[in-house]
């Protein structure tokens, strides 16, 4: 999505713009000549310094504004956006701000509900107040729960989430639908499948395992290693989000739910061995029982993403893990 390819420069609000996926998205949008307002409150889920480091190169770019605000407060966020120069409205709001992670949501269900459900309602309200015609929601594959068949299709039943996190993400989609119905906003809800790559959240398996392996410590290995995930490289996710932005803008009043994954599965055992060989270490496993809330398998059917968004995932796990490791080594 570039100016050169004939797309006009857009004004994009990215909530959670200082986070893992958000900072990659902001960088790509700026590369395409667009103007970006990143809204983030540097929530303490993981260290603020990590997010500040991710956002630092963006702060040097002319078309980027960082707006430090809590998305659960739409009036204050709207004021802060205006103060940051967004006085003539925006073309699209991409809502990525959330409390992420399945396991911590079991410990803190109220907090997850507040940030993920209220936060989504609040950003939809913000979009209405600022007359933003298009909205992209950062949802999750966790909504499929322990679905019986793979790959997961968008029209599979999603009425049986198995963690508070998954329930909040499904609630977000439902709020989006209601909002679109009432106000005619073009909405695309994306379901991301386990995202990884440079700057991956430190709590997620690949990053956490890499840290432990480098320190020669045992890695927590839940279950028998047969759980499978559809790991998606962050550049592919960003390409899909760009497609969703284009789609929502081109189809006023649309409501679409779309998977973004790689359409493959990798077992926990294989992931550990790929990561260990890329790091050049012998992994030590701390075998633990399977975790409540974790699903057995995720795998995305991405045919809708291909058809609607022009999604073309291009980084298989064998290529993505070495790229992650390269970044991991460089950051000490
Ligand atoms: N990373 C994945 O594998 C994955 C998978 C499925 C869905 N998602 C979803 O994608 C989105 C981005 O995930 P991520 O991995 O980049 O997580 P992240 O934690 O790195 O990014 C989320 C950002 O939101 C910000 N934030 C949290 N609460 C906020 C609030 N109240 N106001 C303003 N900002 C707030 C955080 O400070 C953080 O920078 C989230 O909605 C997450 O649920 C991620």
Task: Provide structural commentary.
This protein is α/β, with parallel strands linked by helices and 332 residues long. It has one domain (11-330): Rossmann fold (3-Layer(aba) Sandwich). It contains eleven helices and 13 strands. The chain has helices at 20-31, 48-59, 74-83, 102-107, 109-129, 164-183, 205-214, 234-250, 268-279, 303-309, 317-330; strands at 11-15, 35-40, 64-68, 92-95, 134-140, 186-192, 195-196, 219-222, 228-229, 232-233, 255-260, 266-267, 285-288. The strands form four sheets. A seven-stranded parallel sheet has the order 3-2-1-4-5-6-11, sandwiched between helices. A two-stranded parallel sheet has the order 7-10. Strand 2 (35-40), helix 2 and strand 3 (64-68) form a beta-alpha-beta unit. Helix 1 crosses helix 8 (234-250) and helix 9 (268-279) crosses helix 11. Residues 15-16, 18-22, 39-43, 45, 51, 70-72, 96-98, 100, 115, 119, 138, 140, 192, 194-195, 201 line the site of nicotinamide-adenine-dinucleotide (NAD).
